[in-house]
Each structure stands twice: as structure tokens, then as C-alpha cells.
# Entry
Amino acid sequence: MSSEAITTRMLPGAPARDAILESLQQRIVSAGSPHIALATVLVGEDAPSQKYVASKHRTAQQIGIQSVQVELPSTCTQAELEAEVLRLASDSSVHGILVQMPLPAHLDAERVLALIPAVKDVDGLTSESMGRLMRGLDGHIGCTPLGVVRLLQHYGIPTAGKHAVVIGRSTLVGLPLSVLLARKGIDCTVTLAHSRTSNLAEVCQSADIVISATGIARSITSDHVSPGATLIDVGISRTEAGVVGDIDADSVMGHAGALTPMPGGTGIMTVACLMENTVNAAVMQGIVL
# Structure
């Protein structure tokens, strides 16, 4: 099939997000609306962080999850922050804990994350959660990697036996996503590419699914894509022209089989998957749903 004959299918995140939230809300209501609580810890007055946290609380409340917000000044000490996280960790009425990142430079994020019990780590960022993912054990998966998989599943993109190339090796997206895609039930053959990959275009051309999470604006073009491949854009860059992704949409249209928009694609899946993790956390802690 020639590239000119391909109609590129768009894969917006909103329908997949809405399906997840509706399913979670139905589960909660059917169970008699039990008490499920998500706690967030926000340090400082960073405007984007405040916006993200507000969105998380708003979504939680819409589907029947209670929200608890802890706000600390940017001048708080490591000990003060750790004390709040430990308090939430020991509070049986709180089922999920999220510490909004990034933290101010004087605070040690790793020490803070280490205090969150794995069952309450709804961001999937702790070493124990990462280890559970590696070993195929029950646990919480990072919201962005999970969102990518849920998006693929929602649109019926085949994964079993398919070659997926993940570009970017961060512990937030690339590494956990690579492991997740290779899991039984998803069954991709995964190549993890990164900034030192010398033949990136050639590697990507062999893929059925290309997922880019580098934050390098429009770095993935039609040269990287085999005709009909599915392209998932996780990167985000703010340019003079507005928000753009890693994938040059104009270049790949008519060449790719499917493409997530940026914005409006994978990013809006994150909060929905946080809610999924929170509901699963409640179940792990004895709530019957």
C-alpha cells in the first residue's frame, strides 16, 4: 500500500478517558458509594502544579472519590514534608497518596517517595511499585504509561506480537512503559530507543507502534514511520506556535495508520488512570467494589 492511500486515524484521549471514569463511577455507585479517599501533597505555589492538583481533585469528586489536600509552603523543611507524608501513610481513611512533583530544589524527592506505602502509591513512582511492575506483581503502574496502554486498548489497536518502539528511557514514562507493553496480555516485542540510538529512523521504521516520550518538538517525522504504523505522542513542548508534541503531525499524516493528537491525546489520560489506581488502591486496602 502506498503512503498516499493511507487515511490516518486520529486517536483523541477524551473518549478513552471518559470511558474509564464512567466505569469507575459505576463501580463506586454500585458498591453503595463507599468511602474512598485520595490525598495530594502540594509544596509551594507553582501555578502549573496547582492547576494539575485542582484537576485531580475535581475529577475525583465527580466520580465519588473523596479528596484530601495538604498544602505546604515552598520554605517547608524536609522533616515537615516527611511528617505529613507519614501521617497520610498511617491514616487508614486515606487510600491513595500523591506528592505533586517537582518539589522545590532543597527537598529530596526520593526520601519522600520512600515513605509512601506501595498500596497507596497511586502515582506508581516508588521503588517498590517499579519492582512490582518488573516482577509482574499486583501494584500501581505510573499513570502516563498506563494511560498509553488504556488508549491503545480503547481504540482496539492490536498489540500481541507487534513490534513497539518506545523512544525515551525516563523512569516516569519510557522504562515502565517498555516493561508494561511486554507484559503477558499485551505481548508486544519492545525496543527501547533513546538519545544515543544511532539509527533511530531505521529502528522506528521496523515498528508497528511508535511511542515517543522525549520532549523534543516535532523530532519524529515520516522518515521514522512505516506505512500504517500507530504513533503515540507522549512528549510535550511549548513553542511560539503553541503546545506541540514529539511527532510532526503534518509530516506523518497520510503515512501513519493512527496518531494521537497533541494536545488532546495521551496527556488527558493521566488523571483518569490516577483515578483507576486510586480505586484499585482502595480494593487492596479492603474496600469491596
